[in-house]
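From the shared-data thread, chain only:
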Amino acid sequence: MSRSIIDKINYIVALITEFAVAHHISTQQAYRYLQEFKGLDFVDKFYDVEHTFSFENTVEDLTAYCKRMGGTLA
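Structure, as tokens:
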């Protein structure tokens, strides 16, 4: 596996954890929520840009995106 793929996987795992902390939910709940409301697709598609921002900014982006996709976390 290439280093860039490993970096992307590590980033997404860390981001799920940060999302969980920010919304006071478990990492398992965060993963399921991000999967259901296409947040993981968003991060995968825009990784090149999102990983340059702070986790706080990316969590805000993810929260807003998931809300547009039908999510209820604010």
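The longest helix spans residues 3-23.
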